[in-house]
């Protein structure tokens, strides 16, 4: 038996983090069909809107099963989802793996830093997570900068950590602990 839960909406100064529903299939397709977004992401650019609909269903299923939670990112005065952020997986009172993406026209505006801080706060406060991890493909300097701004620390290189698209990828491991977050945040 599946219990229905109210999806948490998170607010920041400029942003609203919302549930990604089928209403946003065009926005999700636009996001993940852009090769600039998927270049250092383990995802091949979408070719059809059906792929966006499939990923929305997968996100909903993971949320219902308490395996992950992913928010759509939009400006408070807009209906367009411009990116997403959340936990690809988590174990309450233990750890989570964070992921995020953003449409290129919004890069370098502090949007993802704002969203990641809020998602991290939710993880530490509501899910009682102690550790949030981020695995970043080598060469994704922009993603690393976001993590550093959010208080994450680089722990090291995971050699051939991921196998995707017929090759092995080295990943840089970052993390933030609840105690680190509280000491660097204004919450």
Description:
It is a single chain. The protein has 187 residues and is of the alpha+beta class. It has a single domain (10-184), classed as Aminopeptidase (3-Layer(aba) Sandwich). 32% of the residues lie in helices and 32% in strands. It has an eight-stranded mixed β-sheet with strand order 1-2-3-4-5-6-8-7, with helices on both faces. The longest helix is centred in the N-terminal third of the chain and has 16 residues, at 49-64.
Q: Could you list some keywords that capture this structure?
A:
single chain; 187 residues; alpha+beta; Aminopeptidase; eight-stranded mixed sheet; globular
Q: Please identify the structural class as seen in this structure.
A: alpha+beta
CATH superfamily: Gcn5-related N-acetyltransferase (GNAT)
What is the mean pLDDT? 92
The amount of helix comes to 25-40%
Q: Provide the β-strand percentage band.
A: 25-35%
The CATH class turns out to be: Alpha Beta
The CATH architecture assignment turns out to be 3-Layer(aba) Sandwich
The general outline is: globular
Placed side by side, the strands forming the largest sheet appear as 1-2-3-4-5-6-8-7
Tell me the distance between the termini: 37 Å
Uncertain segments are none
Any idea of the CATH topology?
A: Aminopeptidase
Number of self-contained structural domains:
1
Q: Give the biggest sheet.
A: 8 strands, mixed
Radius of gyration: 16 Å
- Report the order of strands and helices: EEHHHEEEHEHEEH
Figure out the total of helices. 6
Instruction: Give the number of DSSP strands.
Output: 8
